[in-house]
Amino acid sequence: MNIKMRRLPQIAACVLTLGMLCLSAMEARSQPARNSRQPLLLSAEQIVLEEQTAEPYSEQGFTFTPASAVRNWVKTRLIADGTPGIVRVILLDASLKRQELKTKGGLRGWFSDDQKYRYDGRIHLRIVHQPSSPQHGASQAEAQASAYFTMPEDATVNQLEEKAGEMVRGLMQRTELELENNMLRYMPGVVR
Predict the structure, then answer these.
(1) How far, in Å, CA of 94 to CA of 66, rounded?
(2) Number of domain units in the chain
(3) Which of 59, 135, 175, 184 supports an S-S bond with 65, CB 3.0-4.6 Å?
(4) pTM of this structure
(5) How far apart are CA 67 and CA 179, in angstroms?
(6) Residue 96's domain is classified under what CATH number?
(7) DSSP H or E stretch at residue 7
(8) CA-wise closest residue to 120 among 90, 96, 152, 137
(9) What number is the average pLDDT over the span 83-89?
(10) Closest CA to 89 of 152, 147, 150, 44
(11) CA separation (Å) from 91 to 67, 76, 189, 191?
(12) Is residue 175 a contact partner of residue 125, using CB atoms and an 8 Å limit?
C-alpha cells in the first residue's frame, strides 16, 4: 500500500502532462498556419479591409473560417510603406457552406459508412490601389479559389474541424499566390 501511495503523484503528473499535450495539439490544429513567407510591402499609407459579400456567409460555427483566414492574412502579410495612397482589400466571398448528401437507408445503410455532408469553401478577393496623385490611375488585381470535402455519417466534431481547417488553409494559400502574381502583373509599382 505504501508503494502505491508513493506512485500516485507520479501517475497524476503523467496524466496531467498527457492531457495538456492533447489540448495543445487540438488548439494547434484549429489555428491558422504560420506563414513563413515574407510580408508584402505595399506602396500606400493605409491598408483597409472591406467585407462586401453578396450574401451572408455561413460558417457553421467553425473555429478557423475563410473570412478569418483573410483577416489574418491582411494583418500579418500586408504592410504599408507610408507612401500617400490607400490599398483596399475587398472580400467579395468567404463562404463555407454545408450540403446534406443522400445516404443509403435500411439494412444496407447500417453496414456502410456513407458520406453524409459536403462542405464547399470559397475565397474571392480584390485589391484596389488608389494613389493620392490624380495623374496616376487606380489599379487592381483579383483572385479566387474554391474547394470542397465530404464527411461520413459518423465523423466527430474534431475530425470535421480538422478537415475544414485544412481546406481553409489550402484555399488561402492558393488565393494568396494568385493574388501576388496578379498584383505584380496588373499593379506595377504597388508591391515593393
Answers:
(1) 5
(2) 1
(3) 59
(4) 0.74
(5) 16
(6) 3.30.160
(7) helix 2-30
(8) 96
(9) 95
(10) 44
(11) 8, 16, 23, 19
(12) yes
